[in-house]
Amino acid sequence: MSQQQSPQNATVIDKGKNEEHLPNSPVLTIPPGFVLAKASNGAHYAAPDFLIPAAKLALETEAMKIKIRAGQAAGGAHAHNYGPGDPLGDFSVPCPPDPGLTERELLMLHAEVLALQQQLGISYKDAAHRLYLGEAKVAMAEANAASSTKNLRNDFMAGVQHYTRNSVEPSAEEDQDRIAVD
Q: Whole-prediction pTM value?
């Protein structure tokens, strides 16, 4: 039976037989795909396998943000080196129109990369590449969902138009022809 440290001072007990004897309690059977986690207050929780590494990475990322003081960096609309924009009447046009990331945003990304690098023991370049590919997959999934929605909308509108064209009330001549046939 091996133990590893998880977020918020919980000890994760990984069992080969998925059974664990706890003091003053019956035998617990943990379903496959779950681990038994002991919190700092002594409570035991069954958690999915994937949740522990994800929570650990999130905790390490937050700790890294605090360590590099990402929250104290300049942020917001006017955090760039240039002014708020060129006046154009009552409005101002930002220069450039699509500004780069603020110092705070850059430090937040840096903290994510450092936490992933530390957790997996890989180079900074590899950690940044993994995060970039993850964001690219999310963007591709969102684009696919948007295009699917657009296709569904177009199909729906074509069906509505077909229905309205075919269900238009018959003219008086067609009505007379139908009466004569009946």
A: 0.44
